Every structure is written in C-alpha cells, then in structure tokens.
Amino acid sequence: MAPRPRTYTLSLLFSVAAFSSLATANCNGGSLNTSSWYYSVEKYPATVFDVAQETRRGVCDIGRHNLMADVTIIPNISQQIWIPPQVCDPDNKTCLIPENNATSHCIYGGPRLYYTVNGDTYDRIAQRLNITVESLMEKSSGNMTATTALQPGQFVKVPLCEPSQCILQPYTFSSGGYKDLADKYGTTVGQIMMLSPTYNYSTSVVNSESGPTIDLPISCTALSSNITVVD
Ligand SMILES: *[C@@H]1O[C@H](CO)[C@@H](O)[C@H](O)[C@H]1NC(C)=O
Ligand SMILES: *[C@@H]1O[C@H](CO)[C@@H](O)[C@H](O)[C@H]1NC(C)=O
Ligand SMILES: *[C@@H]1O[C@H](CO)[C@@H](O)[C@H](O)[C@H]1NC(C)=O
Ligand SMILES: *[C@@H]1O[C@H](CO)[C@@H](O)[C@H](O)[C@H]1NC(C)=O
Ligand SMILES: *[C@@H]1O[C@H](CO)[C@@H](O)[C@H](O)[C@H]1NC(C)=O
Ligand SMILES: *[C@@H]1O[C@H](CO)[C@@H](O)[C@H](O)[C@H]1NC(C)=O
Ligand SMILES: *[C@@H]1O[C@H](CO)[C@@H](O)[C@H](O)[C@H]1NC(C)=O
Ligand SMILES: *[C@@H]1O[C@H](CO)[C@@H](O)[C@H](O)[C@H]1NC(C)=O
C-alpha cells in the first residue's frame, strides 16, 4: 500500500484534529469501530453518501481513503470501497466543491473534452470546472436541461478561453481527493478529471504500490487581456 499522507494532508489533519478536540470532547474513542474493510456496492444508484451513512463514516474520510476523484461520482455495482476506521469527527464537507456561483465562461488552457462519469449533469460538470452552466450548455441539444442525467462515457466539449495555457505536471497521487489537489495547485477538479478520463480509484487503491500517476494542469492562465471563448 502507498505510504499515505504527504506533508500537506498532515497539516490539514492536524488542524482538523485540533479543532475537533474542542467540538467533540464527548466522543469516547473506545466506542469507535476502528475496523477497516472493503464494502462492495450492491445496487445502483447507491451514492458514496449512502455508503458513508450506512457505515457511519464521513463521506470525505471515505473519499480520501480511496483516492476518489470526487465523492459525488456514483460507484458502479460491485465496486469495492475501502472503509476507513471510524473517527470522532467524521468529515462530510471539506471534499465537496462549494456552490460558488461561477462567473467564468471558459476554462484556461484546456483540455477540450470532458468524459462523463456516473451521475453527471451539466450543472455538476460546470461546478467541477468553475464555469457557468449556460456557457457549458451553449452547444448542447435543445432537449437537455442543466439537471438532465447524462449518460456516462460520453464526451462533452468544454468552452476554452483563447489565448490561454496550462503547464502539465505528472503527479503521483498518494493521498486525498481531487479537491485537495485542485486547492493546492490552483486548478479545478473538472480539469484534473479531463486529463485522466478513465481514472478509477478502486483499481488504483487495490493494485498500486505507489499510487496512480495522473496529470495535473497547473498555472492555468490567460495569455492576453482580450479573451475570446472557443466553443
Ligand atoms: C465494526 O463494524 C463492522 C461492520 O459493521 C463489523 O463487522 C465489526 O464487527 C465492527 N467491529 C467492532 C470492533 O465492533
Ligand atoms: C457525517 O456523516 C456521518 C455518516 O454519514 C454522520 O454519522 C455524521 O453525523 C455526519 N457528521 C456531520 C458533522 O454532519
Ligand atoms: C473500476 O474498476 C472496478 C474493478 O476493477 C470496476 O468494478 C468498476 O466498475 C470500475 N469503476 C468505474 C467507475 O469505471
Ligand atoms: C450562490 O448563489 C446562491 C443563490 O443563488 C446563494 O444562496 C449563495 O450564497 C451564493 N454563494 C456564493 C458563494 O456567493
Ligand atoms: C472560480 O472562478 C472565480 C473567477 O471566476 C475565482 O475567483 C474563484 O477563485 C474560482 N474558484 C475555484 C474553486 O477555482
Ligand atoms: C462504471 O462506470 C463508469 C462511469 O462512471 C463507466 O464508464 C464504466 O464503463 C463502468 N464500468 C463497468 C465495469 O461497469
Ligand atoms: C435529446 O435529443 C437527442 C437527439 O438530438 C437524443 O439523442 C437524446 O436521447 C435526447 N435526450 C433526452 C434526455 O431526451
Ligand atoms: C480581441 O480579439 C478579437 C479576436 O481575436 C479581435 O477581433 C478583437 O479586435 C480584439 N479586441 C481588442 C480590443 O483587441
């Protein structure tokens, strides 16, 4: 198994722990279930939130333990989810992309195509990319709405700001989720997903000694103050 936490996750864990020792003074560590096991998903759709509820773990604790891209992606039937030991202060929040009312109409640097996963809607994709859903849907067929379920395994063209660029950095992923990487490297969950369209956490966690290698889009920036949107 991969040597887990890197420096940045450690400091995150420490600050959460410091906060929670106040908040959960009543938590009796001895009554926690410290077992860790593989949970096999038996129905569709059962979300990672359902699994968290059922196993009484924090959804973000599960997400990070499994190197999940995003906990809002619905697992397939028979997918194995590694359940972490129970903790006093389950984290259900810090891995979720906040509703931040995006104002951008295009992404910097690319890539051009987003590959849909289980549970996607235009709304969700736009949120992952931090662009407006209207701009993402500009070229979609008329019968689609922002919340229509999209079939997984299809390409959606993402509007690109031109001229713009990113630096691509190969990165060995050994702890956390895409939101942690996006926050640390100043990029978006959506752009990381676009660069590794078939990323599958369950195969990564089970089969890997050192963690999967993905590409990170970093330093994504406009190259002019006169930006046009390429659809
Ligand atoms: C922890 O939970 C699992 C699954 O519910 C259960 O099988 C196991 O016996 C529990 N462990 C303890 C120590 O209670
Ligand atoms: C987080 O989720 C777990 C399991 O779903 C639940 O038991 C817990 O109360 C939640 N904690 C918070 C702070 O919402
Ligand atoms: C990931 O891989 C597992 C088994 O290796 C498979 O069961 C699952 O369907 C795959 N998940 C996705 C999202 O492709
Ligand atoms: C985003 O918009 C919603 C309502 O449309 C509002 O409730 C929320 O506070 C806004 N969020 C931010 C970060 O501005
Ligand atoms: C989203 O984009 C806005 C500008 O449109 C920026 O201020 C904000 O920091 C971005 N948020 C994330 C999480 O990338
Ligand atoms: C699992 O789900 C993904 C979408 O999230 C889909 O593309 C893939 O084909 C599925 N894999 C299997 C083995 O069913
Ligand atoms: C929308 O129309 C397209 C053809 O233009 C069709 O392939 C698709 O299935 C329709 N989607 C829905 C949700 O009706
Ligand atoms: C901005 O770029 C577009 C297309 O590249 C060009 O037509 C337009 O004149 C430019 N506007 C300014 C203010 O430079």
From TrEMBL:
Task: Give the signal peptide as a residue range, or say none if absent.
Answer: 1-25
Supply the Pfam families for this chain. LysM
- Keyword field: Signal
Q: Does the keyword Heme apply?
A: no
Taxonomy, superkingdom: Eukaryota
InterPro entries registered for this protein in UniProt: LysM, LysM_dom_sf
LysM domain ranges (all copies): 112-158
Q: What is the official name of this protein in its record?
A: LysM domain-containing protein
Q: Which organism is it from?
A: Talaromyces rugulosus (Penicillium rugulosum)
